Amino acid sequence: MSQTVASRSLLALTREFNRQLSEGEGVDPLAREIEDLELAALAVCADRSDALTALDVAVVIRCHDEAKQYDLKPWDLLPFELMLSMIGATEVSPSRVLLPHLTVGPSALRLWAFEIGWIARRRLDARVLMASLLLNVENTIGYWSQSLALCRALFDSDEEFHRSADEYEPQDMPEQFQSRMEDARESWGEVLYPAILQRRELAVQRRIVRYVLGGLQAAPDDGRKCATCDEGLGGYEARTAFLVSDAMGDEATDSIWHCALCGQYTKETYVDSFFGEDRVSVSAMSAEGGAERSAFLRGCATPGDRRCGCGVHLSVGR
Ligand SMILES: [Zn+2]
Ligand SMILES: [Zn+2]
Q1: 26 pLDDT higher than 80
Q2: How much distance in Å is there from the Cα of 309 to the middle of ligand 2?
Q3: What is the reported pTM?
Q4: 221 C-alpha to ligand 1 centroid (Å)
Q5: 177 — phi, psi (to 5°)?
Q6: ∠ CA 268-272-275 to the nearest 5 degrees?
Q7: Are 296 and 240 in contact (CB under 8 A)?
Q8: For the chain, which residues make up each domain, given as ranges?
Q9: pLDDT tens for residues 248-257?
Q10: Ligand nearest to the CA of 7
Q11: Cα–Cα distances in Å, from 139 out to 47, 150, 169, 268?
Q12: CA 183 to ligand 1 center in whole angstroms
């Protein structure tokens, strides 16, 4: 069983997010670095083209549950609420999750919602969000151009955007709306490439490079690593089951570990070869398959004895 790059990235980022959160004991307000990690996990969720796996779902839910124990502000975990929606853990669509946050009073909180929307833009629905985003252009002071930029980014082309925006009916400040839209048309490049939002996206991408590629390059430490999620599983003393058996005169050891992080099992077969080089092969096992196999191997009372003639030993005979 192979693990997609996206799944591994999601796992590395959410783990680092939880780690930094626990080190700072919640940290209020959230450090920018921690926000970047959260947004990086959101970016991986939003941009992946292949199907989400059960592991992704478990990883996001676990990370969110862990983060909830800290006394964070309700908007701190907003990226997670979008992720939960994207993985199908909640009924509400990502756009509906984000919608009420786009028009909150404090401009710094609106900007946070725009940044989240920018990172998740490929998964958002312009039909749901456009009216609120354009209302900001009409009647807010801070960050109205970022609101416009996000709105534009939800469309495939300028034409589509303008066609829809022309249908918007200003509520209380039609003149301000018109003049701002005219200003925007004159410096359209800034609308397409909004500096603040792009800076955040760049920071998010740096986190992905640092923690995902950094994690892949990390030197292996002692003990087995989970074949599914790379979590350290400990040495032989931590196995859920093992069996030493005879392999045409060589000694083969099957070992199985359970991963507390992702719930999957990892199987290692080590052949202590008399003639050639020792051989090790490692593979992932599902939660059900691993549990079943472990229970089966534990059916032998003397798993370390390769000459044991019990039913378990006979059935793994090579
Ligand atoms: Zn694992
Ligand atoms: Zn036996």
Answers
A1: no
A2: 6
A3: 0.68
A4: 16
A5: -60, -50
A6: 140
A7: no
A8: 5-213, 224-315
A9: 778 889 999 9
A10: 1
A11: 32, 16, 13, 63
A12: 53
Terminal-residue alpha carbon distance, the chain:
23
- The region that residue 266 occupies, defined by phi over 0 for left and psi between -120 and 50 for alpha, beta otherwise, is beta
Given a cut of 50, whether residue 220 has pLDDT beyond it is: no
* Stronger pLDDT, 199 or 95, i.e. the higher one: 95
Ligand nearest to the backbone CA of 225: 1
Please give the distance, rounded to the nearest whole angstrom, from the Cα atom of residue 254 to the centre of ligand 2: 13
Q: Give the number of the ligand closest to the Cα of residue 286.
A: 1
Q: What is the pLDDT of residues 141-187, one digit of tens each?
A: 989 999 999 999 999 999 999 999 999 999 889 999 999 999 999 99
pLDDT digits (tens, 9 = 90+) for 132-143: 999 999 999 989
Strand partners, 232: 225
Distance 95 CA to ligand 1 centre (A): 32
Query: How far apart are the CA of 239 and the centre of ligand 2, in A?
Result: 17
Q: Which residue has the higher pLDDT, 247 or 143?
A: 143
* Residue length of the chain: 318
